């Protein structure tokens, strides 16, 4: 018989509990109910997956961003109870609308999901027959007008609804393109400078012709002000990614704007099933996770965070510059990924290594470091790093360049 005394005795001969985690010893002692066998288990290691320092940014392929503890706590909390999915979406939508001072809001499956659902709602309105008809747009308004410079891969989110993309270059072309099949006008904030018509004029044209306007702001946080700016400016619908600058769940997003349009968009989402959005479900855990991520984001000291990023970038830049022949540029993209960013280039006659080789060495070193870049330069941001990691990056960059 195993008495409490014997068990304690046998445990005392084992290494500290932390050292047992992940070895299976804990559950072998029958303590799995008091100490989770999952605590301390390194899933990535088990799976043979290397983690890395993210010196690149909020890239989808790199899993976006890291969630704060408060966010994962909200996710864990969500997993403990049943609630009505629609009720949760209603209440969280209202709370987000209040926080962001807009008419209405809903949590979507990413910015991409928000674009698809937003357009679907615009086309169907509250007519459930039309909801069920999509993506067949026969007899429905199905043209979306956007500027040629805004026509990126993500416009597939619009095509998924069954819509036809109509691209224009000038105001005159835009006004000529509007006809009785026009459902919506779509604007890509990231590419504002690649096209002639800017925000206010775009909205004014939409209002003049009574066409709803949508702006994709997926990667446009920071600055925080953008969360408020575009609904107030007059866009009918606005989309943000939840898993980029907001640091919510990667598969979450925000659709903000006109209540009647977002209500209609919701008709295309679970628990309803006869629609194009059934596969864009957002579970209760992620709905709560995004809400908390947003609350944290709104409260955080953005000036202090910006200063930290600037200092981190300067440290890495100085470290690279200490190698003769190296040049750096520190810049802040005007639209999208609006954070202090570093470009490192060098004279390859003096520093005999290509940017691709440098990036490969960074990725293959210990710890692994992911960067962006091209044939001519290496690109680095620090906003997705844990504080302190900038020192490791600075050292590795210097080592690789100095030894080339
Ligand atoms: C990231 C991104 C998207 C997709 O956002 P998800 O939240 O990953 O669905 C759409 N548009 C732009 C401009 C983006 O940068």
UniProtKB/TrEMBL annotation:
Cited InterPro entries: PyrdxlP-dep_Trfase, PyrdxlP-dep_Trfase_major, SelA-like
Keywords carried by this UniProt record: Pyridoxal phosphate, Transferase
Enzyme class: transferase
Membrane-spanning segments: none
Gene3D superfamilies in the record: Type I PLP-dependent aspartate aminotransferase-like (Major domain) (3.40.640.10)
EC number per UniProt: 2.9.1.1
Superkingdom, taxonomy of origin: Bacteria
Required co-factors: pyridoxal 5'-phosphate
Single GO MF annotation: L-seryl-tRNA(Sec) selenium transferase activity
Residues modified as N6-(pyridoxal phosphate)lysine: 244
Family per similarity comment: Belongs to the SelA family.
Record PANTHER family: L-SERYL-TRNA(SEC) SELENIUM TRANSFERASE
Protein's name according to its UniProt entry: L-seryl-tRNA(Ser) seleniumtransferase
């Amino acid at each position: 018989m195993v008495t409490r005394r014997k068990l304690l005795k046998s445990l005392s001969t084992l290494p500290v509990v932390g050292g047992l985690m992940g070895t299976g010893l804990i559950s072998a002692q029958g303590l799995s109910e008091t100490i989770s066998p999952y605590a301390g288990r390194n899933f990535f290691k088990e799976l043979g997956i290397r983690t890395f320092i993210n010196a690149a940014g909020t890239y989808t392929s790199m899993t976006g961003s890291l969630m704060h503890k408060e966010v994962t706590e909200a996710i864990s909390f969500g997993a403990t109870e049943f609630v009505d999915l629609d009720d949760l979406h209603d209440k969280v939508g209202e709370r987000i609308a209040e926080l962001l001072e807009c008419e209405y809001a809903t949590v979507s499956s990413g910015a991409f999901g928000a674009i698809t659902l937003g357009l679907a709602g615009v086309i169907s309105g509250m007519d459930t027959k039309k909801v069920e008809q999509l993506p067949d747009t026969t007899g429905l308004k199905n043209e979306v007008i956007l500027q040629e410079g805004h026509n990126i891969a993500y416009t597939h989110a619009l095509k998924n609804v069954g819509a036809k993309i109509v691209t224009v270059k000038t105001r005159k072309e835009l006004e000529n393109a509007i006809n009785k099949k026009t459902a919506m006008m779509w604007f890509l904030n990231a590419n504002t400078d690649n096209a002639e018509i800017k925000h206010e004029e775009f909205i004014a044209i939409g209002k003049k012709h009574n066409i709803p306007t949508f702006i994709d702001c997926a990667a446009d946080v920071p600055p925080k002000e953008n969360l408020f700016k575009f609904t107030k400016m007059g866009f009918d619908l606005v989309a943000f990614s939840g898993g980029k600058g907001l640091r919510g769940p990667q598969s979450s997003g925000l659709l903000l704007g006109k209540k009647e349009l977002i209500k209609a968009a919701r008709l295309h989402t679970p628990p309803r099933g006869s629609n194009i959005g059934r596969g864009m479900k957002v579970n209760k855990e992620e709905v709560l996770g995004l809400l908390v991520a947003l609350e944290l984001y709104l409260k955080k000291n953005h000036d202090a965070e910006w200063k930290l990023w600037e200092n981190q970038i300067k440290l890495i830049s100085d470290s690279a510059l200490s190698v003769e022949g190296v040049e750096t540029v520190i810049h802040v993209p005007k639209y999208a990924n609006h954070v202090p960013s570093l470009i490192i280039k060098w004279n390859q006659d003096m520093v005999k290594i290509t940017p691709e080789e440098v990036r490969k060495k960074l990725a293959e070193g210990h710890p692994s470091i992911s960067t962006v870049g091209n044939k001519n330069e290496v690109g680095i941001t620090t906003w997705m790093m844990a504080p302190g990691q900038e020192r490791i990056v600075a050292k590795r960059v210097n080592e690789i360049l100095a030894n080339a």
